[in-house]
Specification:
Elements lengths: L7 H7 L7 H40 L4 H21 L1 H7 L8 H43 L2 H49 L1
């Protein structure tokens, strides 16, 4: 038999990818769900403490300029805005605890992925804009009191920190979260296909 007539496409189709173990996948989904819900609770607690800290600064140190007060308000609004959308994931993850081999379950996984993507792009974008404006307005009063060089250094460090978070940390975390969900969705689909056969 001549080797130039080998149908690689047909051989590839005949190979069956091994479906992941249902128990292993169930445990992986439950673990991801638990971790994600704890992360949401921790974010809520951290933002609540930060808001209380900002309110404490306002009360005890009473900034003089209106820009500082506007900055504090914008910073608080940015956090409330972010948490409002981020908390929507909590109930979605909670639904994952009852593992089911249904289309609705798969749709819930896909909805979580979509919600996460929206949070990591649009919501984070608005959050960072509001937070950056808030920080800038708040810092203005204190930068005016500094020497020129200290003001430049302080402003530059703040800009570098916000830029580093936006261009490096945010995309890295977003990719990691999306990859986790992509792997689980892929494994879930393979189990469903395997059971259907």
């Amino acid at each position: 038999m001549p080797t130039d007539h080998i149908d690689l496409k047909n051989i590839w189709k005949q190979q069956k990818a091994e479906a992941p173990d249902i128990k292993e996948l169930t445990n992986k989904i439950k673990k991801m769900s638990r971790k994600s819900r704890l992360k949401i609770i921790a974010t809520n607690a951290l933002f609540a403490l930060t808001i209380l800290f900002i309110a404490g600064i306002w009360y005890f140190y009473n900034p003089k300029l209106i820009t500082s007060k506007m900055g504090m308000i914008l910073t608080i609004i940015s956090m409330i805005f972010f948490v409002f959308y981020y908390n929507k994931l909590f109930s979605m993850y909670k639904k994952l605890n009852d593992f089911e081999k249904t289309k609705e379950y798969l749709q819930n996984l896909i909805s979580i992925k979509r919600q996460q993507k929206q949070i990591q792009t649009k919501i984070m974008g608005i959050y960072y804009i509001l937070l950056s404006l808030g920080l800038g307005l708040y810092m203005y009063e204190y930068i005016l009191k500094m020497t020129l060089w200290l003001g430049i250094i302080c402003s530059t460090l703040t800009i570098i920190w916000v830029t580093f978070n936006w261009f490096y940390l945010r995309p890295k975390i977003a990719r990691k979260e999306q990859q986790k969900l992509d792997i689980i969705i892929d494994q879930y689909e393979r189990i469903n296909l395997d059971l259907a056969d």
